[in-house]
Amino acid sequence: MLMPSKRTIAPIQAADEEATLADERDIPHVMVIDLGVAQVFRPGNFRHNHPMGTPATMAPEIWSGEVTPKADVFSCGATLFEVLSLRLPLPNVPVHAAEAVRFWSGPAPIDWTLLEHSSSDARDLARRMMTVQRHTRPSAAECLGTCFLHDAE
């Protein structure tokens, strides 16, 4: 499920997922939420000692309780990777927080060769969106300005 960080204007049903649109005056920001957790929750409020969602698309910092808009950029990058390759970028992320934190203490084991058939603009955007260090990850607005999204017709 894709949700804006601000007001929701209209839900859109698309296959198995929902998307909502923000008012055009809002700063671009997208949140990715699994339909299985489409409920009211507070960021950082982990039940059963693990975040809710799909581990394979969750940003590394989520496992330590850091929930920011850039975590959602990572999730969108993981979704873009999956759309381009038809495979999850990180299928082996552990489901428990302590194990996931250890998993992310090393380099991300992403097989970027799965995107060789994609355009260089698409590969570059996915790679930038899935940067492990959130401080160097682009914002949603910066992603929208990339050649892959900006020059699309």
From TrEMBL:
Pfam families: Pkinase. GO terms for cellular component: cytoplasm. It comes from the Eukaryota. GO terms for molecular function: ATP binding; protein serine/threonine kinase activity. Signal peptide: none annotated. Residues 1-149 form the Protein kinase domain. PANTHER family: MITOGEN-ACTIVATED KINASE KINASE KINASE. This is Protein kinase domain-containing protein. It comes from Zooxanthella nutricula.
